[in-house]
Amino acid sequence: MVESNADLTRRQNAELNQAMVATCPKKRNRHEELARAYGKIIAVLNREGTREQAGRAP
């Protein structure tokens, strides 16, 4: 299942929100790690999309 950048961004924001309200440091760290992971995925997808638009896709 392929998700759009908007879906991934929503998930990233949800994880950031969960991290903000988490009272347990372990859970807070886990939510922050997931938010960072979503950010990395979004960055890669954006970079690949930009490369395809420029006609440099492998």
List keywords for this structure.
mainly alpha, 58 residues, elongated, 2 helices, 79% helix
Task: Give an overview in words.
This protein starts with a helix and ends in a 5-residue tail after the last helix. The protein is 79% helix and 0% strand. It contains two helices and no strands. It is an all-alpha fold.
Measured as a percent range, the helix fraction is over 70%
Low-confidence stretches: none
Radius of gyration: 14 Å
Biggest β-sheet strands, sense, barrel: none
What would the average pLDDT be, to the nearest integer? 89
Distance between the termini: 23 Å
Strand/helix succession: HH
Total number of beta strands: 0
- Summed up, the helix count is 2
Kindly estimate the percentage of residues that lie in beta strands according to DSSP. under 5%
**What general form does the structure show?**
elongated
Structural class: mainly alpha
Chart the SSEs and their pairings.
Blueprint: H1 5-21, H2 25-53
Helix pairs in contact: 1-2
Provide a quick synopsis of the model.
By secondary structure, the chain is an all-alpha fold. The protein has helices spanning 5-21, 25-53.
